[in-house]
Prior knowledge:
This protein has 220 residues and is mainly alpha-helical. It contains nine helices and three strands; from the N terminus they run H-E-H-H-E-E-H-H-H-H-H-H.
Amino acid sequence: MNSIENYKPLGNIVYDSLKESILNGSLKPGERLMESKIADDLGVSRTPVREAIRKLEKEKYVKMVPRKGAYVEDLTKEDILEVIEIRVVLEGLAAELAAQNITDEMKEKMKENVRKFNLASLEVDRKELIVLDEIFHNMIYVASGNKKLNEIVKELQDQFQRFRLSYFNEFDSYNRLTDSHNKLFNAIANGNSNEAKKYAIAHIKEIKKNLIEWKTEHEQ
């Protein structure tokens, strides 16, 4: 990390840096946040680091363990399922609208994304898959042409990303995901709104099924 001592307010800058590290997976669930190390890495005192950690704790990105310190909070099974329930509704609607409103330019961008996703899946490149998956679903929302829907999604993006990290880090077989992306893209590109909605919902429900099965196995 580069020194950020010339920026103000420092607490907000440190907060943004730590939050981004949590959302991109650099700081993993259960990892301890060492105030002194973070302060040294960012070139600041411990005070803004402490402020940032307190803010992240309020937003449930960090948990404080008595006499041990601050740790990156993990998503619970309930958290994940709630995120999925929201995504089923929003992405079904977004895909339906995208099939009606998508532009030729967006079709080409989505086609290239699907191609790259298929390649990353074969190479089991998790980091690339996470990035491409986020872009793919965001493109569907943009292609929907519904500004209010996009505003709602922006407020939930952080939760979606934390869910995405959890999912991709727990599974290493992505054949079904690539198949789902292919079907969903083709339905949208062909203007078939009913099929697009169906595939979008099926895609998220498949992820839900996989997660429930995985969590159940690891709770036994």
